[in-house]
Amino acid sequence: MTAEIDSLLAARRACFQSGKTRSLEWRAGQLAAIRAMVTERAEVFHDALWKDLRRNKVDAAVADLNAVADEADYARRRLRKWMKPQRERTPFFLMPGRTTVQFDPLGVGLIVGAWNYPIQLVLSPLIAAISGGNCAVLKPSEVSPASAAALAELVPHYLDRDAISVVTGGVEETTALLEQRWDHIFFTGAPSIGKIVMAAAAKNLTPVVLELGGKSPAIVDASADLAVAARRIAHGRWLNAGQTCTAPDYVLVDKTVAPAFLDRLKAAALDFYGPDPQKSPDFGRIVNARHFDRVKKLLGAGTIHHGGQTDRDDLYIAPTILTDVPPDAPVLQEEIFGPVLPVIAVESIDAAIAQVNARPHPLGLYVFANDGAVVERILAATASGDAAINDCAVQPIIRELPFGGVGNSGMGKYHGEWGFRAYTNARGVLRRGAGLDPALRYPPYSRYSRLRNWIMGIR
Ligand code: NAD
Question: What is the pLDDT of residue 92?
């Protein structure tokens, strides 16, 4: 396997060194090809997403296919502007001269994807890599094999094979890939694996973007519109059967409105998925038996307020609300990544802030409140990759927003121009002519000292 990977990487490197990927035309052409792939072959991807995750067409379009097509378009239209070197001021003593920042491609990047949005989490980083003028090797997750197979079949068909390739396989293949020297590594997955990736990257001082997870809180204040809060939290949590990195992982609700909020949350579950969500065409499945067993175990703590049904043969876990959960229960310690939502009644907003700050920094933080002072107090007292007020989980759709974590939820940002920046070296360049070369710059400094001190501001 190592020999195969060696030769694959050597070919991508040769392509990068040929300079082919630097031109605006190449980048724009590849971005258009990504759009063509996910639109012309949408059925192949829909089938794969259904097989891997029983993903309905609306969610697959919004979260995977349309998201990728729109992002590719967005980048293609703005590429010229992003690539344009930025003009900066040249200090007087370096005049005549011209100072710019140019955005150079990094080289050949490795993109390692996760299984929960298996198309988007590989192609969206690829859009950033291409925008930056790089070559890339994609490693889709083995946990979503149908999506990985669709990418392995279609990417070489649509995109430039000299520059972009797909490697399928599991941990063994990822480990072999990580042993290589890359110019950039983009990883999406669990924080525990992120540490393995970063350790491998450190051997070559390779820059990384780590898109990780964590426990994203939703705080519901007494001033919130409870019905809207409940519906948006229910949608964020139960989309893709809870297997969404930005999903609200637990709710901290002001105790004075907790019973009313719980009623509305249950009503939202019934409204969205009916009395038997297993029959709903809109409710997904757990990706595999290992994750099913993991999530089912988390149901063992607290009181089941709603849901709780499971069917291992169908990898089904019902949309479930837990209450009265002891603080040390695993469901409040580890990221749930399933359709289970613990709701904790808190005495005050300060108590909610203390609970958030007792855990590592999350990927998202959500505040449901109509009181602006409460919103600002929570934002000022906490840290998270992203935040949304009176909404949750949907903020990555906004291309202009930097997407990514902080601390334990990751490092580096992407989407739109943020992705372009992650995949380029901001290279400061001073351009001077040789015509004028006053001696005042050079030793001995006893010469022209007063003039030099005046020009250079030396006191
Ligand atoms: P996963 O199991 O698919 O792993 C991700 C990748 O890591 C795979 O390609 C796999 O081959 C590789 N991998 C797994 N074990 C490895 C090892 N020991 N050595 C080297 N490579 C290895 O996905 P996952 O980690 O279960 O994904 C779920 C996590 O990802 C959650 O924590 C979730 O919050 C997070 N996530 C984050 C984002 C984001 O954008 N920030 C998006 C989706 C998921």
Answer: 87
